[in-house]
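subagent[fold] <- orchestrator: predict structure for attached chain, return tokens only, no commentary.
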Amino acid sequence: MAEMSVDLVAVERLLWSGQATFVSAQTTEGQIGIMAGHEPLLGQLVEGGTVAIVDTDGQRVVAAVHGGFFSVTANSVRVLAESAEFADEVDVEEARRVLADSDASEEQQRAAQARVRAVEQNANA
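subagent[fold] -> orchestrator:
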């Protein structure tokens, strides 16, 4: 299967960098899947979305992503997020507490929802 170079970068750190066969992301235009050879594209990530990467070994990496952009060329994908965290780093109980908190801001609710969604996607991998 064709490979592409993928970087998942948040303001505070580089989360993942390597070769992958597939990347999916939630954008302001909807869910998008990227494979090597894709048309060049610049997209905006949704607030409180997820990004999933399938590496060349078939391992799936899922992250909750909060805003940012991604850039696609024929052989690379660069995800530049305002903030992001791996699904396996998420404190699910804390995220669910935020979702149940009627005083939580809309931004906090979206971020918590993305964290829970990332964990669920990672569990289904």
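orchestrator: received. Logging for downstream: Residues 106-123 form the longest helix (18 residues). The longest strand covers residues 13-27.
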